[in-house]
Structures are given as structure tokens and as C-alpha cells.
Amino acid sequence: MVLRLCGSTLAKTHVMTTTIEKTSDYLTTDELKRLNRYFQKEQNYQMALLIEFGFRTLLRYSDISRFTWENVLNKDELVLNEKKTGKRRSIKVGAVLKGLLVEYFELMQQPELQSTIFNYSLRHTNRLLQFGSRFVGIRKKQVSTHSLRKSGARFLYDENNRSEDVFLKISMILNHSSTQVSRRYLGITKEEISDVYAGFDFVL
């Protein structure tokens, strides 16, 4: 099933979303785990699942919030037309995410299959993330739904030894206009780039 969205996005909403994307910080896996545990203790399983889903799919909340349970349960891939770009995306569902979806479906008392999984507004979701992050000690970062997407992308980059090949693939997945945009997005610093050049000190 392909998710589709009818109608145009208001310019004001686009500006607000773009601002959030630029100012949001990525979180470490430890910070994500702390935030997930916080929402589990609060029995807000929707938010706990959002941490996992946003991190593992690299999708924007505008797309995540459109999924129903029947779109995702026991699926090997998720297919959608992105709201922002209009482009068709196919995302493989890994074994871990597939299991988590079943687990949270049970924790949330088996909702109607046709109901949306993440039904909070973007504003309310961001407020919950900001409050939760402060509660678990994440005080120096700007946290929003977009932090989850950034965190997943940064994790893949670091986990694959920051290889240029993986970086280019991540840039394609994120649909960025240039690799420079992706470098800023992933928070790749000048120091990290300089470290690459330091490798020349050990040859010849």
C-alpha cells in the first residue's frame, strides 16, 4: 500500500518545519535509550515507539504520522510517497523494528488496525520530546522529532567507520540537494574533516 497525501502544504508550516530541521540536534544511542525508557515508565508507549521508529526509518514526522497499524505490522517493507518531496520511498523493515512494532501493538492494547500509530500533533510531540529530554538530563541539545531522523543517519555514518561510500548513500536516502547539506545535517565538524587528512602523515 502506498501512502498518499492530498492538498498542498502551507508556506508557514514549511518555514516552521525547515527551521526545526536546521536547529535540531542528533542524539547518541545512549541518550535515545534514556528517552525511550522515560516514556516507557510514563506508559506513553506511542512516544516510546516513536523513538525507535523515527531512528530506524529516517523518516520525517510528517510521513511517520500517516502510518496506520495495518501499514506496518508484519511487513517486510514500508512504501510511501513522501509528503515534502512527493517522491516514492521503499524502506526495508528490519527484524528488530518488526518485533518492536508487534510488542508495542500489544502494549497499546491492540488498537484498531486502521488507526494511525502516531496521532499527536507535531507541536505536542515536540513538546513531549523536549520535556522528556530535559527530564533525563539532555539539557544542552535542541530535541525535536527531527532529532530522531538525524540520530539514525549519524548512527549509520559512525557505525560504518564514517566511510565516504556510506555517507553518499545516506545523503541519497535523506534526499539532500548536495553533500554539503548532508555534512551540516549530520553535524560533521571541521575537526572531523581535518582528522581525515591527518591520515596522510602515516604514508610515504
Can you tell me about this structure?
This protein has helices spanning 11-23, 29-41, 45-57, 61-64, 69-72, 95-107, 122-135, 145-159, 164-174, 179-186, 190-197; strands at 77-81, 88-92. The chain has a single domain, classed as Intergrase catalytic core (hpI Integrase, Chain A, Orthogonal Bundle). It has a two-stranded antiparallel sheet with strand order 1-2. A hairpin with a 6-residue loop joins β1 (77-81) and β2. It is built from eleven helices and two strands. α3 (45-57) runs antiparallel to α6. Helices cover 57% and strands 5% of the residues. By secondary structure, the chain is mainly α. The termini are far apart.
In angstroms, what separates the terminal alpha carbons?
A: 56 Å
What is the number of helical segments per DSSP (H or I, 4+ residues)?
11
Report the mean per-residue pLDDT as an integer.
84
Identify the quaternary structure here: single chain
Tell me the series of helices and strands, N- to C-terminal: HHHHHEEHHHHHH
Percentage of residues in DSSP E strands: under 5%
- Write down how many β-strands occur, each being a DSSP E stretch of 2 or more residues: 2
Q: What percentage of residues falls in helices of 4 or more residues?
A: 55-70%
Topology record:
Blueprint: H1 11-23, H2 29-41, H3 45-57, H4 61-64, H5 69-72, E1 77-81, E2 88-92, H6 95-107, H7 122-135, H8 145-159, H9 164-174, H10 179-186, H11 190-197
Helix pairs in contact: 2-3, 2-7, 3-6, 3-8
Condensed summary:
With 204 residues, the protein is mainly α. The chain has helices at residues 11-23, 29-41, 45-57, 61-64, 69-72, 95-107, 122-135, 145-159, 164-174, 179-186, 190-197, and strands spanning 77-81, 88-92.
